[in-house]
């Protein structure tokens, strides 16, 4: 009798724990999309950030950049390295401004890009009292 109960109890426990896990296909609460995937060296990147979460997304304000500050990464030797990032001083940089739920933000990134592969990072606090989390754009190429 005990062996029959264990045959039913163990699978029940496993199913219970698995049903409590978050789905691996959960949508990203912050979507970052560029207007194209391939650019020439003299082009700017038009980017849109969409807060598709169910709450406000808070972001750091950097004194040297108007808007939501990006970090631009370049793929070099099979690893992502920072290509450009705003320099924030302590005087007029602060936390936090807000991107409301279902709100979008558009920006144009105009830098001296070199040939290569890039992605853009933005950091947000999506839930109150949580840490900043990185969100990345699609990969873009400059030819």
Largest sheet: 6 strands, mixed
Percent of sequence in beta strands: 35-45%
Instruction: Give the radius of gyration.
Output: 21 Å
Count of spatially separate domains? 1
CATH fold topology: Immunoglobulin-like
Query: Which structural class should the secondary elements be placed in?
Result: mainly beta
Count the E strands: 11
Quickly count the helices: 1
Percent helix: 10-25%
Q: Low-confidence stretches at least 5 residues in length (pLDDT < 50)?
A: 6-26
Integer average pLDDT = 84
CATH superfamily: Immunoglobulins
Order of helices and strands: HEEEEEEEEEEE
Form type: globular
> What CATH first level would be assigned?
Mainly Beta
End-to-end distance:
71 Å
**Which architecture would the CATH scheme give at its second level?**
Sandwich
List keywords for this structure.
six-stranded mixed β-sheet; 1 helix; single chain; 143 residues; mainly beta; three-stranded antiparallel β-sheet; Immunoglobulin-like
Any overview of this molecule?
- There is one protein chain.
- The protein is mainly beta and 143 residues long.
- The protein has one domain (25-142): Immunoglobulins (Immunoglobulin-like, Sandwich), CATH 2.60.40.10.
- Helices cover 13% and strands 41% of the residues.
- Strands 2, 5, 6, 9, 10 and 11 form a six-stranded mixed sheet that branches.
- It is globular and about 40 Å long.
Give a summary of the structure in a few sentences:
With 143 residues, the protein is mainly beta. It has one domain (25-142): Immunoglobulin-like.
Topology of helices and strands:
Elements: H1 2-20, E1 30-34, E2 38-39, E3 45-51, E4 57-61, E5 71-76, E6 79-84, E7 94-99, E8 104-109, E9 116-124, E10 133-136, E11 140-142
Parallel strand pairs: 2-11
Antiparallel strand pairs: 1-3, 3-8, 4-7, 5-6, 5-9, 9-10, 9-11
């Amino acid at each position: 009798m005990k062996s029959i109960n264990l045959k039913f109890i163990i699978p029940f426990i496993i199913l219970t724990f698995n049903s409590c896990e978050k789905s691996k296909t959960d949508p990203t609460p912050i979507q970052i999309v560029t207007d194209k995937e391939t650019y020439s060296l003299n082009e700017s990147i038009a980017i849109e950030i969409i807060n598709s979460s169910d709450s406000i997304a808070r972001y750091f304000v950097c004194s040297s950049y108007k808007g939501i500050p990006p970090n631009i990464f370049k793929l070099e030797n099979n690893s992502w390295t920072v290509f450009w990032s705003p320099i924030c001083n302590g005087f007029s940089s602060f936390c936090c401004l807000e991107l409301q739920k279902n709100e979008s933000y558009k920006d144009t990134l105009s830098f001296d890009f070199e040939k290569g592969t890039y992605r853009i990072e933005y950091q947000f606090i999506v839930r109150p009292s949580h840490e900043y989390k990185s969100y990345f754009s699609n990969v873009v190429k400059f030819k």
